[in-house]
Amino acid sequence: MSFTVLIPARLGSSRLPDKPLADIAGLPMVVHVARRALASSAGAVVVAADDARTVDACARHGVHALLTRRDHATGSDRLAEACDLLGLPDAEIVVNVQGDEPLIEPALIDACARLLAERPECVMGTAAHAIDSMTEFENPNVVKVVCDAHGRALTFSRAPIPWWRDGYAAGLHQAAALSDPPPLRHIGLYAYRAGFLRRYPTLPPSPIEAIESLEQLRVLWHGERIAVHVSPLRPGPGVDTPEDLARVRALLVNQAQERPRESG
Fold this sequence. Notes:
By secondary structure, this protein is of the alpha/beta class. The chain has one domain: Spore Coat Polysaccharide Biosynthesis Protein SpsA, Chain A (Alpha-Beta Complex), CATH 3.90.550.
């Protein structure tokens, strides 16, 4: 199975300016992301940047990067331009790895690409994992997904879904009890075919997408299907804020210290 990883990288983050270039253990964050993706089965890994500084930083560390327009509304729009710049055929599977996921597991990238390859009725693939915390379930910053009997997304929401009516009525939530099967947290990893990725920017935005601020809802609104890989493992934390950055820096330092030293 052949696929390409594209990593959108935008410098203008309101909560963490110049986020792709944030130093983590001596490397820009986007370089960490690219190196994780290079450990997957992808045939190519390319950063789609909106600033020459990101392209230059990637080049210094041997990472392929393209300069795309700054005015894209979403990461998917940026990747659609990257598909054209790279001349990818419509049937090529493209995995969108977010540029703020320096701890992304290569195996999860492979699983997302493989899922889409196996599901011709779906235009996208994504991933999720079980939620085991009531605090996480009720957090609007944690996106939830509900699937159908065939493992396809029914909807995504920042609200706690599915709502366990009887459990809440019985007060079980006060003991941090969750439904069985447990609700699913959406992981922001996407696989597309390049042809659909090119078509995505032409789809009119949907009202529910604007309300929830979740661009994947545009796909469902227009009647397309999204396959969902449910991972048994919780992915490493992403980086949205300075506090997240400090957490990831500490994790990578600890991982480096725990690696066995080579004998001299």
